[in-house]
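Lab notebook page, bench 4
Experiment: in silico fold of construct C2
Operator: M.H.
Input chain length: 328 residues
Purpose: comparison with the prior construct
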Amino acid sequence: MQTEIIAEIAQGYEGNPKLAELLVKGAIVANADSVKLQLVFADELCVPTYPYYALFKSLEMEENVWKNLVKMVHDAGKKIYFDVYGPHSIELAHTLGADAVKISTTDFYNTALIKNAFKKFNKVFVSTGGVPVEDIDELMHTNGLPQHITLMHGFQAEPTVAEDNNLKRIVTLQQRYPKANIGFMDHSLGSSEEAFHLPLIALGLGVSCIEKHITLDYSLEIEDYISALSVDRFGAFVKTIRMIEPSLGSSELTLTAKETDYKKRAGKLAVAKHHLEKGTVITASDIEMKRVSTTPLEDHFPRSENVVGKTLLTALEKDQPFQTSNVR
């Protein structure tokens, strides 16, 4: 199963329908699996006296704009998700036919909103950035939530430096909540090498999805650009993930046919250290372990101790392998 790559537009559309359309097109061109935007209505987020109330107000767009964005994403065979912050945005996301919603850290303790999200959607993401583990426990164990939850590890520090990601926590979360999916929100500097490398580490740790910010061009400094990849870099990022992903393979310890074949070709066999006469009772000093051109089939000895004490039925020259058919 492929790791889902989510193109996070966040507030990057700046309340501008045309810019929103261009960003969605960019995410589609970059071949993200899904697109996510913040469905913002200022009065659901804060009181009018809050310092960023005017900014949040400027992000509001008409329902038809959102409807067109959803259609564009679905027509491209992709999924669309929304961050929701209250009853209006969650109802609109449901009406629009969104494939999932995300509850941000802002609303982690908004129990009514979370329960409503699970009531209306089969897939819900919940951000755990900055949330104490005891509170995540409460969310997972006392609210009676369904199991189709994805806990998203990561937080935004504009940007989040590498050492603050604590990617090992992904494994801890997987072990603590085995029935949940664990995703990674990467907020590293979009122009840095870490913007590619950190998600690859998360990929190796078994995340179900990777959320990456996308922007049209880093130099334009569009809202939420700091952690974003430009469209061309996002496309390269997706290709990198898809190239590396098959290397994860299976967690099962059963050897593949290729591994078994390699071991047969690379393994050493017990061979005669010097000329041995017929009837010789073989000792450890008569044996050396060497690679031979003969494929180590069942009639040879990959362990020297299995030859010691046996009697040769035919003479052997130096470097000839011992065989089950010529000893007893």
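Observations: The chain has a mean pLDDT of 95. The two ends are 51 Å apart (CA to CA).
Next step: discuss at group meeting.
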